[in-house]
Each structure stands twice: as C-alpha cells, then as structure tokens.
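S1.2 Input.
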Amino acid sequence: MSTPFRQGITQLRCAGGQLSRPRPTISTVHTQASNSSHGGKPVIFSGIQPTGVPHLGNYLGALREWVKLQNEAEAGTKLIFSIVDLHALTVPQEARQLRKWRKEAFATLLAVGLDPKRSTIFYQSEVPAHAELMWILSTVASMGYLSRMTQWKSKLQLPEDTTLEQADARAQLRLGLFSYPVLQAADILVHRATHVPVGEDQRQHLEFSRYTANSFNHLYGSIFPIPEAQISPAKRVMSLKEPTSKMSKSHSDPKSRILLTDSPTTIQKKIKVALTDSQPNITYDPAHRPGVSNLIEILSHFEGQSCEEIATSFDGASLRALKEHVAERISHHLMEIRERYESMMGDQTGYLDAVAQQGAEAAQGNAQETMRMVRDAMGL
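S1.3 Output.
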C-alpha cells in the first residue's frame, strides 16, 4: 500500500470517529433506491463468515454498523443479515468445529443488538436459492474478471500478479475458492439488495456483483437492481501485535485480537502487552507510531472524539495510563454483549434454533420471489 493512499485512509479513519463525507442516512438511501424491485424501498444485505466469536475489528467495522442501520432504518426497509456458512467451505472444515462456529456467530449477531423482529437473520446454507442462483450467475460471470480478483490469491498466499497461466497457481486452486465472488453476488442479488454495507477491502467484490447483475440484466431483462456500496465509516482496527496489519483471527498469536466474549481480565492482559514503542509520551502518528496510534484509534470508537483530541487529552500521561484506560473502555462497552451472548449460548429452550428457522423461512420466501422472476426470464 503506497504512502499517499495510506495517509488518505488514516485521515478517513480518524476524524472524530467518522468519515469526512457523511454516511447516507436511511432516508437518503430511500431516495437512491429507485431501482429496487420492492416498491422503491431499500433492501440492505450483508453477511459474515462463521469463524467463531467475532473480534473487536469485526464488531467496530461491521456488526455495530449493522445495528445502527437497523435502528435508524425507516419503515419498510428490508434488513437481511446472514451467517454465510457456504463460503466457509472454500477451505477444509472439521464438521464439529464448523457447527460450533455457526452457533457462536449466530448468537453474536443477536448479542450485539440485531433484532429478529426487525431484521432477517439466517444461515445461508438453509436457503437453497443462494446456491441455485450462483449456478445461474455462473453462466454469465466472466472468467477473466474472476482471475483478476485478489481473494483466491490472498487465500493461497500468492502474489497479486499471479495468473491462471501459472502451473503452480492452477495446481493449488479449487473451483469453490475461484468462484467465491459468484456466490457472493448470488447472496446479494437473490434478495435484490439495493445497498450492501462493506469495508473498503470488500469493494472489489461488490463491483463484481454489480458487473454480474448488469450482465444478467443485459441478456434477460431488468431483474436485479444494481447494488450500491455503503462503505463503513468506522476506523479499521489493527492487530495488537502487528499494528500495521488489521486485526484478524488468522494471526497465530491470540493476544493479537480481542474477542467480543473476552473477560475484563483477559482484555486487560491483551492490551497490557499490546505492541507500542519506547517513547514515553503519547502522540497520534500512524506512520511512525502505529502501535500507540492503534490504541488511540480504538479509544476514539468509544470516546466520540478525534484521535488528535484523545492524544492531546493524554499529554503528559504514560503509556501505561493509556493502556489501562483503553482496556477499561473496551471492557465496559462489551460487558452487556458478553452477558447476552453467554445467556443465549447457555439457553436450553431452543431460542437460537427458533430464530434461525424464522429467519430462514423469511429469507427463503424473499429469495423465491426473485427466483420466480429469474426462471421466468430464462424459460425455466
């Protein structure tokens, strides 16, 4: 990533906790969604893979934004959120572990504040229309476009300039991983979503979905609205151990991330050993002090202040004082989420299964409306 681009992202990441350009409100989205097939009302879709309990970066960058969209949405807006478990199969999974992760991810969506009375929440694999539409979209998807996507290259730890002409790439690549963006497009288009909340690093996949929707519409008529990206205004949360890389579960050190279910003691320990530097003062300088700046950025999510204001408020304080305050603020914010999560995971009444079934039925009904239009247009 070049320095000018990185600086631009830093400015967006830390401007009082918001992007410099305003996020479209739901009422704004309403006027922009004229291409919707749902009577002009916006349809918002997003999903998360089941990799167990989400970490702080997942929450601040996506899940908390989903809850905000839900709570601010005008009447009639469709909100659809999915545990995209079919996507998890692009790499081998142990069945028992995947079942556990699916349940943990679903419980987390409810714990952070998604309301099944307002949002449709479901497991992707329980709505067969997703896979059916993927096959249909595969008939119009561009192999050349897919070969230029970065997802399969990063998963296989290959250089970004890797092509299918290289024998070692072809030997490692599997069709499911290569066609991952087609399934992602199907996830969005089967619900005729008009808006998709995504992080900046997912913009490429949404562009493929838009391209595929246009390709299908050109051949078979205007079935799909062209979805628009709602780029999250949240600052990206970086690894506590490698603060120049984003927080991720793929990091070998569990101390590099904070899970939403971590206890206050665990959070305190992880923040205490977070990588910073030897300078005694506190300044916000992502380029030269990424570790300290990451802690300040995390704190800005909860304080409602810009990073510069936070750094000024800690003028003369020690790094220890900063870390203790960051740990306390995270622990306080996550306390209710952790309690709700533990309650749902320990529930013996079948509540989670009931919510999942309700969500799957609603999602399947919505998807079947789309599939009837698709089949009719194609002569099936």
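S1.4 Remarks. Residues 351-378 form the longest helix (28 residues).
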